[in-house]
Amino acid sequence: MVNTLRAAAISQRFGSRVVLDAVDLEVPPGRVIGLLGPNGAGKTTLMRILFGVLTPDAGRVEWGGRAATDGDRRSWGYMPQERGLYRDMRVIDQLTWIARLHGLDRATGERRAAVLLEQLGLADRAKDKILKLSGGMAQRVQLAAAMVHEPSLLVLDEPFSGLDPVAVGFLSDVILAHVRAGRNLLFSSHQLDLVEDLCETITLIDRGRVVLHGDLRALKAASADRYLRVDVAVDPSWVDGRLAEPVTTDASGTRLRLAPGADPGTVLDAVRANGTVRDFAVEAPSLSELFLAAAGHQAVDDEPELQGSNR
Amino acid sequence: MKDTFLVAGREVRQALRLRSFWIVIGVLLVGSSAGMIIPELVGDGRTHIQVASVDLSPAFETSLRTTAESLDVDVDIEVFDHVEAARQAVESETADVAAVGGAAPTVVARTGDNELVLGLVHQALGAEVLAARIEAAGVPAAEAQAILAAPPPLVEELDTGGESRRAAAAIVATVLYVILLMLMVSVATGTAIEKSNRISEVLLAIVKPGALLFGKVIGVGFTGLATLSAGIVPVAVKLAVGGELPDGLAVALLGGAPWILLGVAFYLTIAGSLGSLVERQEEAGSVVTPLSVLLVGTLLVAQSGADSPLGAVLAHIPFTAPLVMPARIALGVAEPVEMAISIAIGLLALAVAARFGSVVYRRAIVHTGNRLKLREVLRRGTAGVAA
């Protein structure tokens, strides 16, 4: 059955600190939804509220247009930011046990676990204890634990944190396969540039408030900001500050933000007058730049994620 | 409920995989078996005495054997011709005592020897003298012996097996203390590990906090009671085959079972919830220290004063009843009414502990960043605390 997860006007305080302030979130099926923002923005707290681990001070969580029940939540899958596995338990036993907690019988749980381990390249480690696995392998087992019951909604909290590029690609494929099957998926990340290509719809959150929400391509298209990328290091003196200003310079070149109404060709000519340009492009703002425009500051790790309880 | 038993089942299965679990089972089984078998091999509980007799009639032997039998004492009598030889037998410890008849009846014994032996021989020697005087008074010898062979008066012991009961009370209380202490630390440590490893966060997204806490309590409690049963099996087997057990042991184990179960459930529920307050596994032991201290004090009372007025009071208090009441049952001083009241209070307290444990666990298990104080958790209600 196709359902949409909706969180409406979620508010949460820990003591005197406002962690979430009337946050709305929508996770329709068949789309990759990114809950994005810097550490401390309130992403993990919101995910805990979605799963009923925390009860919000205000707001509601709906599934299919009605209040989410324990039974609904049991059909979802959750991979927390910090890995949560019994280190002294065998991989296959752990996955089967979690499947049973989700309501599957033992035989089905074992079969699902075996299939997942095969897909995740861990079939030969099924009988090993978690403590014998590498960090990357344990992370894949954690993902399997979230998916062993074939969840309708998969929620991944900072799934790309600490992964190498190969693992990021692998996990991205898993995410895409899940949504292509018409299911719901929400993941969080503070690494905006890393997940930019993966996200279809984003909710940008900062200090407990939603600062931007919508289809990523539409948001980019709607933005008045435009950037010129050139494959040469640009000195600020080469361009008139009223036309453009360099925002980043690295080994691959420079990215310049064009002033409203500025002609990209004029700026490009100014650069070419000082250096050799072999490659260039006029681009919409990146996810980080959208965040900067919306929040008024960089999406950097400026404070630790708040953690707490109110239950 | 199914979730609770799935959580409990995991605890049991993991415990069964631990080598230490089987080692403890083995030690208890061997130790308890030895305690049941060795007394049977060492002796039958009867006393044997060796008596050297000189110049004594059959009336002496008849009287000595009759009295000795009534006291579960076996007597071997060796007849000597000379006093010196009998005295030598006592000195060399081949005889426990020498009885000398004749004109001046005498009992020869080593200083400090068993008064029971002296009393038996002294009484028989007196009967010998009495028989001689009866015979001298004209009563036929056979008739005189028949008179003297009459069974002694029955002895009614008011404190039968008192020392044995006291020992049984102390043993049962001590074993329960050790089991409770081990299980409390185990359940608190398990909870702390799940919290520090963030396993609880994964599980709380699937099942309710109560299922996690009570599943762990049931699982750990079951393995603990299984361990305890390893020590009880030899006792039960000996009882089933008609063997004799120390007074009070069987009744303490059978009669005390409800308090054992209540105690395990009560203490483990509290310990599990307290384990959720800490951040690291290493802190789990310290969080149950107040309970451990309480148990030590309770053990002292259960061992030495369960039948005292203080013991009677503590047998009604849920924190102390699990150790004191089985001890009182072993001593035979627990009245049915007080047992009924104690059970009722215990069940009520368990319900309160379950509520308390559920609230503390639910509020504390998802809090990370620093160790919580119990007062803080109880006070904050729905206000929340930032890490």
In short:
The complex is a heterodimer of chains A (311) and B (387). Chain A is of the alpha/beta class.
Topology:
The complex is a heterodimer of chains A (311) and B (387).
Chain A: E1 5-14, E2 17-27, E3 32-36, H1 43-50, E4 58-63, E5 66-67, H2 70-74, E6 77-79, H3 91-101, H4 106-119, H5 135-147, E7 153-156, H6 165-180, E8 184-189, H7 192-195, E9 201-206, E10 209-215, H8 216-222, E11 227-230, E12 244-250, E13 253-258, H9 264-272, E14 280-283, H10 287-295, E15 308-309
Parallel strand pairs in A: 3-8, 3-9, 6-7, 7-8
Antiparallel strand pairs in A: 1-2, 1-4, 4-5, 9-10, 11-13, 11-14, 12-13
Chain B: H1 2-16, H2 19-42, E1 47-54, H3 58-70, E2 73-80, H4 83-91, E3 97-100, E4 106-109, H5 115-136, H6 141-148, H7 162-196, H8 199-204, H9 209-240, H10 249-255, H11 257-275, H12 284-287, H13 289-304, H14 309-314, H15 321-331, H16 336-364, H17 374-380, E5 385-386
Parallel strand pairs in B: 1-2, 1-3
Antiparallel strand pairs in B: 3-4
Helix pairs in contact in B: 1-9, 2-9, 3-5, 5-6, 7-9, 7-11, 7-13, 7-15, 9-11, 9-16, 10-15, 11-15, 11-16, 13-15
Low-confidence stretches of chain A: 301-311
Measured as a percent range, the helix fraction of chain B is: 55-70%
Oligomer: heterodimer
Query: Reading side by side through the largest sheet of chain A, how are the strands ordered?
Result: 6-7-8-3-9-10
The H/E string of chain B reads HHEHEHEEHHHHHHHHHHHHHE
CATH topology of the largest domain in chain A: Rossmann fold
Q: Please, how many domains of chain A?
A: 2
Q: What is the C-alpha radius of gyration of chain A, as a whole number of Å?
A: 22 Å
Strand content of chain A: 25-35%
Highlighted features:
heterodimer, A: 311 residues, alpha/beta, Rossmann fold, 2 domains, 6-stranded mixed beta sheet, 4-stranded antiparallel beta sheet, 10 helices, 15 strands, 31% helix, B: 387 residues, D-Maltodextrin-Binding Protein, domain 2, 4-stranded mixed beta sheet
